[in-house]
Amino acid sequence: MTKDKVEAKLVEEKVVTEDSDAARDIANQGRYGQIVNKCVELSLLEAIYLVEKEKLTVKDKRGKELPADQLMVKARRYDPNISVRYRVFRDIRSRGYIVKTALKFGADFRVYDRGVKPGEDHAKWIVYPVHESSVMTWRDFSAKNRVAHSTKKRLMIGVADDEGDVTFYEIQWMRP
Fold first, then answer.
1. Would you say residue 129 has pLDDT above 90?
2. Is 122 designated active site?
């Protein structure tokens, strides 16, 4: 392990970093996770992304290092749709946006515009990741749009295909 990687442990549905300045920099500068008791608690999506970016080393409870693909397999136990969700998450993060959970909004993610810090301003979008073969009823689609509208956010659907590409569709209410 190189010195610039932060060490962390997989703890069920989250990853907890060591107590270090480098770990807190991940939270404060990179806007990943949240600081709890001087450590950073990361979502599985954030941890997989940071492992891929070689900024984080994650170990299981036995102390075995987990590369991103093995971390993904373990994460699938908690979230069968994690592959699709991760592709959308990775695409958005790689474009420079901050991605946080949006469970309280009934969505997968809330996304902040570039340069906006969570807590200092509101998210611009709520995002629902779907696989290209997924079927959405008009009722589901309308409910998602209603949630976005009522929370004053834009609705975005991230469609992941089998080739690994993601296409985004932004949906808005319109008055005729």
1. yes
2. yes
